[in-house]
Amino acid sequence: MHTTPTTPWYQSAACTDLDLDTFYSAKSATTAVATCKACPVRQACLDAALDEERSSTAPYRHGIRGGTGPDARHRMYKNRARQATADTEAVAAPPKPPSPYRAKLNDAQRADIRARYEAGGTLAGLARTYSVSAPTIRRTVKDILRVPPTGCGTTGGYRAHRSRGEDACRPCKAAHADADRRLRTTGTSKRLAAG
Asked: Which residue among 76, 88, 184, 193 has the highest number of C-beta atoms inside a 10 angstrom radius?
C-alpha cells in the first residue's frame, strides 16, 4: 500500500495491520497479492495507484498495489489512456456541415436553376435559394448554359478547354491553329507588330 493515508478508503484496507515491506519485497509478493485479493477496497487502491503513477514510467512503479505489480499497472494505465482517447475522439465535435463552396447540385436542382435564371433570376438570389455560394451558382449556370469561357478565340482559351478535358470550341481551335502556323513559319507564336 501507499505509505501515507491520503484517501478515506485506506482505513478499510485489509493491509493496514501488515508490514509495508510485504508489498515492496519480491520474497513476499505472493502474500501481498493474496491479501489484496481478499481486500474490500482493492479496486479503490488500484485506481489510486493508477492515478498516482500515471506520469511515471515503468522503472518508477514499485510494489504490489490493488493486487497488481508495477508492470501490470503500467499496462492497465496504457489501456485506460488508450480507451480515454478513443472515447474522447468518439464524443468529440459533431461533424461539420458541408461547405457551400463545395456544394453538389442534383439534376432536378440544376434544371430548376436553369429555368429560374432564364426567367430573370439573379445569381445572388439563386445562391440564397439553394444555400450555396455565389461561385457555385456561377459555375453551375455557366455549365448549364454552356457559356463559352472568357478568352474564347485565343490560345489561352484553347488551353483552358483542354485543361478541363473539353473539346475546344471553333474560335479557340482556329486561334490555336493560327498560332501553330506562326510558330512554324516565323519561329514564334506571337503576332508580329504592324509596321
From this structure: 76
